[in-house]
Amino acid sequence: MTKPNTVYQFECKDHRGDVKSLSDFTGQILLIVNTASKCGFTPQYTGLEKLHQDFHQRGFSVLGFPCNQFGNQEPGSNEEIQNFCTSQFEVTFPVFAKIDVNGDTAAPLYQFLTQHQPGLMGSKKIKWNFTKFLINAEGEPIARFGSSTKPEKIAEKITETLP
Hints:
Blueprint: E1 11-13, E2 19-21, E3 29-35, H1 44-55, E4 60-66, H2 78-89, H3 108-116, E5 132-135, E6 141-145, H4 155-161
Parallel strand pairs: 3-4
Antiparallel strand pairs: 1-2, 3-5, 5-6
């Protein structure tokens, strides 16, 4: 298999465990976020949903990837996570199955993202929940935002990236 050069070449499991190809999002601007339900940054779900609502009609989607690697802040099952997101934050963007984002068990998508958009001083690790990757319409990671960057601060960069 050739080395992937876009996020659209990856497959991920949805919250039901069904395999979903990210090629379904071909041509869209994406914001890929590792999420957690019991984190100090969890209220960012509100801002992420607002971005999704504000820009979805223009070819933009937020994709959430729950992760339990940081302080065990995402302990629930995929179904519990989905219920939490919809009942507490009225999330309508896709929230996938729980994954690892660091280490030997890191999801291939996250290996790709961190390779193409390393963190501070070239670090390939995700430091905490709610790290965000902006993907252009060609499926290429073009920016990385840390946990403390609120979603509304990314809106201008999304607008610049939209066709």
